[in-house]
TrEMBL record:
Pathway: Amino-acid biosynthesis; L-tryptophan biosynthesis; L-tryptophan from chorismate: step 3/5. It catalyses: N-(5-phospho-beta-D-ribosyl)anthranilate = 1-(2-carboxyphenylamino)-1-deoxy-D-ribulose 5-phosphate. Signal peptide: none annotated. Transmembrane segments: none annotated. It holds the Pfam family PRAI. The lineage of its organism: Bacteria, Bacillati, Cyanobacteriota, Cyanophyceae, Nostocales. Residues 3-204 form the N-(5'phosphoribosyl) anthranilate isomerase (PRAI) domain. Keywords: Amino-acid biosynthesis, Aromatic amino acid biosynthesis, Isomerase, Tryptophan biosynthesis. The gene is trpF. GO terms for biological process: L-tryptophan biosynthetic process. NCBIfam families: PRK01222.1-4. It comes from Dendronalium phyllosphericum CENA369. GO terms for molecular function: phosphoribosylanthranilate isomerase activity. This is N-(5'-phosphoribosyl)anthranilate isomerase. It comes from the Bacteria.
Length: 210
């Protein structure tokens, strides 16, 4: 299973988290976020990473040329769209960045929203289901109603996000079968500062399933 640890700001934590077992690291390119990083910070954070670790830039309602430039300058392997991007936008972005994984994040409030999520599947490589918060786009620590996701089976791969922690991850995965998981505040000391003990505990818990 893919494991993405999101909201990395410190270069030395990138390497440590990849060594612990993360398959993907997420970098927040949304200027209003307390986890925001510049292109130079992303470059520093990915410089020592093994090739096989996915480097995902998280954007919200950003225009294609800006995403494109950041992806090139930072060496991103994936772009996560965390705003109100429509399927047509995802399609255009995919054509502009054919080598880059396009991930559409959806903040799920109801079954109706979940049905909407499936419409994106043909325009993106991967979906990411996150919890809804009225004021914040992401990194909120709010969990989704996992029971509601039990029948979720889109035609592309998908990540479960939203309030996952080392303490609740096994309960979540006993109810839902995503292709990957995404964690941020659940493995943090404070926004952007990851708690490596919690990251290690997460992989210990995941290892206990095998
Ligand atoms: O994390 C942020 O600060 C953020 C800001 C704006 C848009 C997206 C953001 N995070 C996106 C992520 O992929 C988080 O990992 C996801 O929301 C889960 O966060 P958490 O509930 O804290 O695990």
């Amino acid at each position: 299973m893919r494991v993405k640890i999101c909201g990395i700001t410190q270069p030395q934590q990138s390497v440590a988290i990849a060594t612990l077992g993360a398959t993907a690291l997420g970098f927040i390119c949304v200027p209003t976020s307390p986890r925001y990083v510049t292109t130079a910070q992303i470059r520093a954070a990915v410089a020592q990473l093994p090739e096989n670790i996915d480097r995902i830039g998280v954007f919200a309602n950003t225009d294609i040329s800006k995403i494109n430039q950041t992806a090139i300058d930072s060496g991103l392997t994936g772009v996560q769209l965390h705003g109100d991007e429509l399927p047509e936008f995802c399609d255009q972005l995919r054509q502009a960045l054919p080598q880059v994984e396009i991930i559409k994040a959806l903040r799920i409030r109801s079954l109706e929203h979940l049905e909407k999520a499936a419409h994106y599947a043909q325009y993106v490589d991967t979906l990411l289901l996150d919890a809804y918060h009225p004021q914040q786009l992401g990194g909120t620590g709010q969990t989704l109603d996992w029971q509601m996701l039990q029948q979720f089976s889109p035609s592309c791969s998908w990540f479960l996000a939203g309030g996952l922690t080392p303490d609740n991850i096994l309960t979540a995965l006993s109810q839902v079968k995503p292709d990957g998981i995404d964690l941020s505040s659940g493995v943090e000391i404070k926004p952007g500062d990851k708690d490596l003990d919690k990251v290690a505990l997460l992989f210990e818990k995941l290892g206990s399933r095998e």
